[in-house]
Design a protein that fits this description.
Belongs to the PEP-utilizing enzyme family. The protein has 320 residues and is of the alpha/beta class. The chain is built from 13 helices and 8 strands. Bound molecules: phosphoenolpyruvate and magnesium ion. Magnesium ion binds next to helix 8.
């Protein structure tokens, strides 16, 4: 455990029977680094980067981006998973055409593959920082829905790496490439996707939205946005099973990971890495180090057989 961390369990990052887990931080800005370190998190599991493109302080040139990624990597211990720009949906898309269904439209990887200049400048900045810090940086691709997107992005990464090498810049040849599991098509064919990448990170916020056909930002229907819904849990379990067959690790970086009921079930499904807002790390650590792995597995096995979110809340109350 790191100096200055605020964890209280005697067996931090381990269940009572000694099964280890990792708790990581979701961050977006340098100002959050301090909280991420103090929370006891073991690295950054999700660095959102869209904030570089919008708002008051736009920093989108390759040099500005590189400086930002460097600050983050140097400012915290452990691995840093950098997610490519996830523009679109509710995230300030500067789109030329108004879309009727922006959440089903031009967002994430779909937009990046059409906007090669933007994509390549981000890849150049990330890959340069990764070359200076080998083994520390991972790349995460948002909003994947078909396998060609994965193949195309890998191709782009190889091209940018080739260009860096020929201009004398060091690269991390083994930089891990992962995809976000946010669309049911990826969860349902997890094995086929997992075979082509190095890790998977479940975005439970979008996975819930796309599974239940509920706009995550629409207040009128917010009671239908149920991330404990048994169908969401089943898709998560399918992802874990498919990835396991391909020997690929799965983590979760959506809000479910920082939620007690969610974290207990996710760990029970066999997910050993959870990434969350830094303030949730101590409470989730305390929860996961309070019982044996077997007890979490029992809860998760039962949870997946239920018919509704309410039933899971009730089950959790009795289990806890
Ligand atoms: C998610 O969808 O769960 C996720 C982590 O991504 P974002 O919330 O940034 O869409
Ligand atoms: Mg998302």
């Amino acid at each position: 455990q790191k100096k200055g961390s605020k964890l209280k369990c005697s067996n931090d990052f381990e269940t009572t029977d000694g099964v280890p887990f990792k708790l990581m931080a979701n961050i977006e800005f340098e100002a959050e680094l301090n909280n991420a370190s103090k929370s006891g998190s073991q690295g950054v599991g999700l660095l959102r980067t869209e904030g570089l493109l919008f708002g008051k302080r736009v920093r989108n040139s390759p040099d500005e981006q590189q400086e930002f990624y460097e600050h983050i990597v140097e400012g915290i211990e452990g691995p840093v998973t950098i997610r490519l720009f996830d523009i679109g949906g509710d995230k300030n898309a500067r789109r030329p055409h108004k879309e009727t269904n922006p959440f089903l439209g031009w967002r994430g990887i779909r937009l990046l593959l059409d906007e090669k200049k933007l994509l390549r400048s981000q890849l150049q900045a990330i890959l340069t920082v990764a070359g200076k810090n080998p083994g520390r940086v991972k790349i995460l691709v948002p909003m994947v829905s078909v396998i060609d997107e994965v193949r195309e992005i890998r191709n782009e990464i190889e091209k940018v790496q080739g260009a860096l090498l020929s201009s004398g810049v060091d690269i991390d040849e083994n930089i891990p490439l992962g995809l976000m599991v946010e669309v049911p098509s990826v969860a349902l064919s997890a094995y086929q996707f997992a075979r082509e990448i190095d890790f998977m990170s479940i975005g439970s916020n979008d996975l819930t939205q796309y599974t239940l056909a509920v706009d995550r930002g629409n207040d009128r229907i917010h009671t239908l946005f149920q991330h404990y819904h048994p169908s969401v849990l089943k898709l998560i379990k399918m992802t874990v099973d498919g990835a396991k067959k391909a020997d690929v690790e799965v983590s979760v970086c959506g809000e479910l990971a920082g939620d007690e009921i969610g974290a207990a079930c996710l760990f029970g499904f066999g997910i050993k890495e959870l990434s969350m807002v830094p303030s949730s790390v101590p409470k989730i650590n305390e929860l996961l180090c309070s019982k044996s792995a077997e007890e979490f597995i029992k809860l998760a096995d039962h949870a997946i057989e239920l018919s509704s979110s309410e039933e899971l809340e009730q089950l959790y109350g009795e289990w806890k």
